[in-house]
Queue: 4 jobs
Job 1
Amino acid sequence: MLKVENLTMVYPDGTVALRDVSFEVNEGEFLGIIGLSGSGKSTLLRCINRLLEPTEGRILWNGEDITHLDQSDLRPVRREMGMIFQNFNLVRRSSVMVNVLAGRLGYTPPSWSLINRFSAEDRQKAVQALTRVGIPDKAQNRADELSGGQQQRVGIARALMQEPKMILADEPVASLDPVLAHSILGHLEDLNQQDGITVLCSLHFLDLVQRYSTRVIGLRAGQVVFEGGKEDIRKISDERFKQIYGEEAQRLETD
Amino acid sequence: MMEPQASTKQPSSPLHAFLSFLVPGLGQLVAGRRSRGTTILLSVLILGALSVWTIAQRARFPDYGASLLIFLKIFGQTLLLLIFLMALRRLMARYIFRDAVAEAFSGYGLAVVYLILVVMLTSNIVTLAGTSLDIREVHGLTGVLAAAILSGLWLWQASDAGRVASLPEKSPDPSMTLAIILICLLIFALGYNITNVDLGKAISEIDDFSRLLPDILWPWEQAFEYDQQVVEATQRVQAPCPPGDVGPAPNEPHSTDPWLSATPTCGDLGEREIVGGFIPGTEMTLTGGNFPPGQVVEILWRNPIGNPFTPRGVGETEILVDQNGEFTSTLAIPDVVISESTAQGAQIHTIVARQSSEEVFTGNLSEEMILALQLMLETIMIGLMATFFGIVLAFPVAFLAARNIMAPIVSTLRRITGNIVGLAAGIWLAAFVTRQVSIMLGGLEAAPILIFVVLLVTVFGLGSLGFQLGGTLFARILRALSPGLQKAFITGLLAAMAAVPGYFIGLAFSRGIRSIVLGAEAAAADEMLYAYLGAGLFALLAAVYSLRRSGDEYISIGMIIYGTVRTLMNIVRSIEPIIWGIVAVIWVGLGPFAGTFALTIHTVAALGKLYSEAIESIDPGPLEALQSTGANRLQTVVYAVIPQILPPFISFTIYRWDINVRMSTILGLVGGGGIGFILIQWIRLYQWESVGIAVWLITITVATLDYVSSNIRERFV
Ligand SMILES: Nc1ncnc2c1ncn2[C@@H]1O[C@H](COP(=O)(O)OP(=O)(O)O)[C@@H](O)[C@H]1O
Ligand SMILES: [Mg+2]
């Protein structure tokens, strides 16, 4: 479904954030991306939907090369990839409803946005999406009145509005408590299993990856240093662990 | 024993110090401290030139050569004096008093002694510096002070050169605090002179101010109309009275109307002697009747030219009328200066007896008050309209000047070329359509607003349509061509496009700068040459630019637009509204429109800057989130940018509205309409009460506005 070939990304200041990254994602997978902070996880996810322009390499989406698409041709591709963020990236002063409806912008004619118009159907969809993530009663609140966990649910609802084939999640639970983390990842798992939406999710903690992903790739300093299926993750050796997280890293024993 | 002074022990290179003594900064340059050396050289040169220029300003026609010479001589003397003092200090410290003197006479002590000496010796120094004629043409004291400080700077930098030369290489530069203090002092001394600071005058002439203060502070009598009944009777008299003349006939008592009569009606003028004495003229008996009884009659004298005054020291001028409405009194003829030129024939004066009733308050506003109110309203409207237009125009401009919005806008050269060609074609088509519509409607004069609207709509619509279409078409079609052909195509088109602005800039250069330098006619003769030169130059630049790039190279067109808009905005903003007011008055004529126009121009630039900074400081997260949903640029702006910038925008807008109303009161001074227009006239006519009304209205308006705007701002932010 998604194929990344020899992707290299150099920031304008010369930082090489990704180095010759290649991997493939199949339909229906829950792909975990692990790596220390600064290893290039965010950069990778943003290159996939072209929020950042890769320096070299190709990105194939359902066989189509989207690496050099013009902005206008990018629109139909982007709306098939929902994205959720570590900091939720909601418009804080707008209502939850408007934030969720914004997920529909890839489908609405741009000039409608000048008069703030969404179809009744879209509004219906937004209520459904909010119901699905469990906060239908918050629709009229301002986004910044919500708690962190609730804000991330709005983020998921916004992505749902896109009717995405794939969701890119950039450390969606890094700013949340462990309990909330499981609740949010549970929603993503649900989308993955019930709706068959492919999920690419970068995560900090190994145990979360072990719990939710069907496959995982490990990044270190912009390079893929590990790739494996569900079984491989479960029995990641100490040596492997150090490969991904560096020599000094200590394995945190969970239960 | 304690160490006398650690600083004197510092190693120093005499050679470098000497070099810098000859040419400021040279020692530092030679020692490899390049920026320090040039800074010193430039500072000394600039300060010296500034000093010469300042002291030359005393003459009506400054002679800079002579001033330079005088200043150099003064400078030489102060430098010698300073060197002498420093040498003296060295000697005394070494051979006589040692530590005690070194302490007291170091640093500040030396500076104080030096300054006292300089001030004491000022006139000697100046006299030595030039002939008595020369030195009257310059500001001597300022020159001496400036030269004294500059001498200090000169010696400081010489010793500094010695010091830095003996420092190890690559060590950081030592501090320049003393130099900076000296430079500030010097600039202060010169500035004090240039701005003519004169506190003495501010106090000694406070009377001039206090005389008009009451009128300005309490002008409200002038704000209303008063009714007053005046009863008046006159008697004509002749003075002086040449032999044989009898003067006008005394009035006979009238049966119903008030009357005044005098005898005799011909007499001699009073005389005022040079040493204080006064001899009254011929004494007359005044009688009058039919005045309202029990009230005071006021006696006035009206000279042959018609100017009335109250005659003093020649009799009663305020007489109580009796029960019958009659009065009798005596009055000597006062001294009246009759100028030679009018002193021909019989000089006829008029005595006036006048009874005025109390002033009756009518409750009607006076003409001045009505005018001031009308113009105040106009002022507020000018401020409002300028703010309104300013917002509408500054809003789009702000996005073009926001780095975070513009930086990501990159496009292939191919597409940009298509955009430009399409935009040009669209605008051309719009002009064509508007022209046809205008012809259909019967010319521009027939329906100017309608045609303007048509122009706006077609330019906007067809322009953006062409922009989009051209971009897409070129991106598709040119990609199919061979690279060489593609490059040739793009180069040709860009060159042709660039030639158009080049043509107009060349023309503007000729009509602007050249016609000022050469005169309008000489410039007009070959202005087309410059137009073609401009077109050629721009085409060439564009061709060179595009030849070095391939069609699918990404160009940061966003940053190019950002830079251009920012620069223009900063230029416009740095020109004060009052100057724009003068430009606008020349452009569109006197009146409120000129004021609105000028304020709008400035508002667009100022608000554009504030807005764009608000845009630059938004949280980029939501922007990124919306982009990832497939929203296009317009949609991300509407849903992610505008909600974030609304509060600061409202705040800035109100702030600007406040400024604009205050500015529009001033713009009237240059003819831009509003209350300033009449205010400056009243000031010129010394109508201080009217001035007071205007000032009060302005104050009330501004204060109210201040209150309202801070209230609104609190509510929104
Ligand atoms: N805008 C940027 N400009 C320059 N370097 C950046 C920028 N964003 C991230 N980087 C660098 O790129 C590398 C990868 O960063 P990132 O993708 O954010 O890692 P992660 O998401 O895994 O923490 C880091 O070294 C980071 O410092
Ligand atoms: Mg990250």
Note: Residues 400 and 568 of chain B are 12 Å apart (CA to CA).
Job 2
Amino acid sequence: MALDKNIIINVAKNIAPNVDVIEHHGDLTLVVGRDVVTDVLAELKENPATDFNQCVDITAIDWARKTDRFEVVYILYSIPNKTHVRVKTAVREDKPHLPTVTDLWEGANWYEREAYDMYGIIFDGHPDLRRFYMPEDFMDADGEPLYPLRKDFPLAGIPGSLPLPQK
Amino acid sequence: MGLNEQLQRDGFVTTTVESVITWAQKNSLWPMPMGISCCGIEMMAFGGPRSDSARFGSERFSFSPRQADLMIVAGTVTYKMAWVVKKLWDQMPEPKWCIAMGVCTSTGGMFRSYPVVQGIDQFLPVDAYVSGCPPRPEALMKSLLYIQEKVAASKPQLINLGKDAGDVRRSDLIVTP
């Protein structure tokens, strides 16, 4: 039996009173501020009423023109309650920092590395924040690191940014 | 009775060393399987009982590059993977051949995107390209037969090693132009 959505919303509201709730085709999304996001996630995990013990994915969205350019998305699952929830938070372009959640879910380690590699979001306190897919020295001619899933990155890549072996 | 007929009657065959070596190379191409993605499955079917590459002397898939002379690159090659493919290619002894199997390997295919090498001929000397996504085993078989033709047409050069022929490698003996 899936968890009642009001229970989830109330647990989140205890920590962040001004949480935005979006429901779309039965999928629950909680939009919270970046200063309280880890507290909300911790409460959703630790509270026995919700018990979201699995972190399914952490990823990001690049909204390009918004003031808060990036949105980080946490997808959680409660194995005992058979319930999904999505938690979103907005991050600014000039300060793309968020606290890590690796202390809550060990599995978040690689998801955060992936979001860092693809969008350049820095998870403070992560034990080993390196690039995940792309080579460590993936940068443009000026030495600026490149993040390929950002909207300003060309789909076909930047010539010369990735080296090839000699023939 | 001429000498030739005399020899044949006694169970001898007269030939040249070059043509024996070429014949042996042609009919015992040992593939190095670089099954990187879905083309790898068709490459396995090519080696399996239905297509049976053993008919052409290629049943021995060598998982060590050092005992292989034909590299079948089967799958999408990313910029990161290119270094691995090149490293394995460099370990294969001369003479060696390379098949680019499938459109991803040949041209980047549908992956016109930042991490994918747009054709492995940017860093490997490719002898045969196989189209298809993935190609059927028959298509790969055709490319193998093409490589065999190419081997048959090439002429190995024999090097006179003289007295210092103690530590001789196969790659020292035969050099294909």
Note: The beta strands of chain B are 31-35, 70-74, 97-101, 128-130, 157-158, 174-175.
Job 3
Amino acid sequence: MIHNSPLFSPIVEGRVWRVGDSIDTDLIVPSHVLTEQDYTKLLEATLESVIPNFAKQVQKGDIIIAGKNFGCGSSREEAVFVLKELGIRAIIAESFARIFFRNAINLGLPVIKFPASQTIGKQWDKLRIDLIQGTMKNLNTQQIFKFSNFSPFILRYIEKGGAIQVIKERLHL
Amino acid sequence: MSISDKILAKHISSTYTNKKNNIETSKIEKSVTPGEFIQVSVDYIMVHEQLGGRIAPEFQKLGLNHIWDPEQVVFILDHWVPPPDVRAAKMHQRANTFAEKYHIKWNFGQNQGICHQVLPEKGFAQPGRLIVGSDSHTTTYGAFNCFSTGIGATDVVNLFATGELWFVVPETIRVNFHGNLHSNVLGKDIVLQMLRDFKTDGAIYDGFEFGGEGISQISIDSRMTISNMVVEMGAKNGIFEGDKLLADWLRAHPPPTEAPSTLQTILQKSARPNSSKTSYSAPISPNTPRFISPEKGYNYKKTLEYDLSEIEPMIARPYSPDNVIPVAEMEPIEIDEAFLGSCTNGRLEDLRIAARIVKNHTVPTDVKFIVIPASRDIYLKAMHEGLLEIFVQAGAMVEYPTCGPCIGGHMGVLGPDEICISSSNRNFKGRMGDPSSQTYLASSATVAASAITGHITSPPQEKTRI
Ligand code: SF4
């Protein structure tokens, strides 16, 4: 594969946020803000009942490590949008809910399925992910973990920053 | 191939080529294998309020002045109808403006009910079809032997722009039903039992296929509940084999031929049956439906057998739909609200059994009993059958079709620490209101029985089947 997208960097490096199993889409974006047109309201409410003040503390490049079934629940793409917009650059989980996984690919946010997600690192550890090589290195413990590489299909969406760019190219827009 | 495989294979896009799109498969013949990435064309795309959420602005970024096929799109407002606040009203305006600008053909407005009830009623869900919707419970149409699943906003944009969508072909889990259901057991209890067995991540990315001689015991309304809630196990879809019950339903709900304005007139006429309580007066389609059946000897990921006679009324405790036990084992927890409605259980079957249970009883004054038929059609039928009167007499608040309380939107939002028994499908933290509120999920029969006692109560055994 040729990785020639100017915006694409195969390396993600950031702090770890640890969350548990079954973080559902209502927890990520509560429905009381869903009718908001002003996206800042959605951002403020992100994960509010799981991690108070998450929106204020999260930094660009941060990585979420979750347990099972991350993103279960509704089809609301806002759940991916807010996390990406707040700076989350990758999510690692034991498993992802199907629509959340699709939405993440469609918005170009790398989602890494890794059964032993709990062993990678703890809250605030620093992690470096190489999206092409399929490796994750915990910079605190120096441990390296290998995940199965993205299929070329999915990697293309991640490289392009999401489906909109892929559609534009396809339609020559 | 499984039923789902067959339907997906039939919908592989004709413009799909391996080299050009860099997709990791070379198959363009009409056959698919689980795990494979495919590019498909769909029959219908259902959109609701999400159209005014992320879909419209994202699509407009492309600068296209048309959508791929406005005739494929079904648009309906249902989550916040009528709008409870200015924000929701504005969201509706944005969605309506888009629908008009791009000439969406099947624009049902906001007075028809919840999308997942309305689409089948209007004949969109037909065997062999591939339907997607901007809502996770689009899986509901699997009851009609069609492949249907939920997608996100960008997926819809992709379809609006190119007419195609990527899919990964799911593995199929086969479930065979046998035996006879007890009189107070409904589809909801069956799917809650499945949730107890599979858990919320037990079928991620997989598709369910339902069959066995026991399906004849499961009404179409109850099948819709089961297909509706397969997504709670992470499944992509949940498709039933066809049978006589389904053939009868389909004959009564023929595919649409007219755009909604004309259709509404027909429905207004047909919604006033003269005498029979159960007859549908929509025109009879002369065609016998052509069901899709699985290939004999197909190698399923798993095959499970469920004996319906072993299933009893079940309940899911907060905060997960898989936190399930038999209602009989529940402590009699006091409730603040009982909600009978939603795309899971706001159907005629639900209203009939609930009315039978609450008839001649009074709801305690400290319990909010909220009844919301899932569609206008059901509302009218329940009205003609006198069910709504029974509810109001008992002290219930009967509202016009909307999602309302299911999503904590309006018409019964829960306050701090309030406890609700609900016939809907999700009891996540904060789903129906304040994060400290608690929702128990159960069948319409259990909700009705609990509404009149004021605490969680098993539904009575009926002498005859519901
Ligand atoms: S009734 Fe509830 S689950 Fe069904 S579509 Fe509406 S909000 Fe979603």
Note: The radius of gyration of chain B is 21 Å.
Job 4
Amino acid sequence: MNGAEHILDAFHRHQIDTVFGYPGGCIMPLYDALVDDVTVAHVLCRHEQGCALAADGYARASGRLGVCIATSGPGATNLITGVANAHRDSVPMLVITGQVPLGLIGTDAFQETDVLGMTLGIVKHSYLVTDARDIGAVMEEAIGLAGSGRPGPVWVDIPKDVLLQDAPATLFPADEESAAECPDLNPAMDLLRAARKPLLYSGGGVGLARCEDGFRQFAECAALPAVVTLKGIGNPGKHNPDNLGMLGMHGSRAANRAVDACDLLLVIGARLDDRATGNLKEFAPNARMIHIDTDQAEINKVRQADVALRGDLAGILAELTAAVRAHPLEIDDWRQQCRLWRTTGGFSAADNEEPLAPITGPAFVRQLSHIAPDDTMIACDVGQHQMWVAQHYEFDHPRHHLTSGGLGTMGFGLPAAIGAQFADRQSTVINVTGDGSFMMNAQELATIRRYRLPLKIIVLDNQCLGMVRQQQELFYNNRESQIDLDDNPDFVAMARAFDIPALHINRTDQIRRGIETILAYKGPMLLHVAIAREENVWPIVKPGAGNREMLDETHRPSTSNKEQIA
Amino acid sequence: MTPQTDTFMPSYTLNCRMAHEAAALERLCQVIRTRGFRIVRMAVESAGESLDIALTLEGTRPIAMLQSQLEKLHTVAEVDSGQTSAIRSRSA
């Protein structure tokens, strides 16, 4: 068995049946081995970045390991953005790259790059394998590492001659899972019971730990007012009356107000990211904090916790649920206050009653949320449309919302949707994108066509980089710089060139029909939605400011101030 | 050119044991740099399959934060913090 076959052997041991990749010189031994393999489905994307982001989307949607493969040099460097994206959002990923033969390493050989060196900061761990006899053990360790604890990408770089080298088969006994010990919850429960205004603050860690149900039970049982981070959207459930929605830079007034007023933050699976907290000095100024996370390095990283619990989230949540079930929290006044704030300061977008009026992003997303099936997975890109989805789409499960949170990768959405559709061929998968983001990985339309994936693409097209334009308007004296995309291609014609049917809409009365048409179509379809260039995401907190300083439409500068230099 | 100003820069010592594998030291140094510390002195000794690394570092952030980030590295077996002192340094 050669080195490449050892890799496939590891895939078989771990039931890895779907991988995303792109062949090339130094990885050819693995592609040769794939020819005879009947259990591993290889998805050929059209760019290595598409491979990595599709593997990321696959992992987010399925909770399983995402695998991507590329050759040395440009193949590896093209993966980097996707791997960094997975790293920042703690997505379990295995990256396999070919490397130039051992004797050529360090000679500036054709397609040689120091992959190990250049990726140190974006991986959970990485390996350069120099002996085929090590491949089995390295794969075993790499797969285990990628999915354990706080998940993340693990990169295995293997020289071509090592892939071709023969090595004996090795037996790997199955790991025995040890039961995690639950830490002492008494200090946390004491704080929780003493609090008069406790607030539940959850993030992506809930989904990563696969304890969505346990979290939901706790949230409902405790009936705590709850806020979520971008990656925690869906944790409390859309029917939870205490769910105040997303906090932070584009958070709801209700969520930011509750954080400002609370006297205890119960933080679960969140890292207090700057986009969520705003200016840390002004964040939750009256609150003590209980921080529950699997990653010790997140505890006390940016704010000192009064009580920190590190351990198995599922076990901790079960214990917390039992405790609040036995002795319910007495916070009726606070709960009522938050529910009032939810009514008056939640996300709302008026559905435009005027049928011929232009389409607005929020109104479109609200209709999409009402029409799409409950189990729909939405893969967003990055920009204004991403925030409108976060604000106005009512998610009932965190795994239904695929979004690039930490890295903010434009171009994430389309390949992530491809990965999600491979993770679940039956689910409705929709890529909601903007005209800027869509063009960053538009080549993956060919992948959709090749595999006849029935996913839907919605391009909210404002003919500009809307989020940049918005910040230039609000924080750079309305001086527009390099944001115009009014020479976009005809997206409908472009989709059709890939044999993907497409529709264009631009009026409010066309929204419902447009959405229903693409959802009813059995194959892939694109809906091109023209929206106004000047539309902003509200509210917004200026980067670096406290979340109390939310700006809304009344803060728009006069358009007569505009100084266009683009 | 930005004028230099006198600042007090806390100094720390850390002793670290990690596996002697490809890019081990780069991995360690990369975390130290990106987490906001500067290496003032570094002594490395090979001990079988391990590396023993004695570090003197400067930085204004809490050293515990760096220590927990280093402990997260898969190939780091142990990180011990030494005594803390404040030394006078010049920084731009």
Note: Chain B has a mean pLDDT of 86.
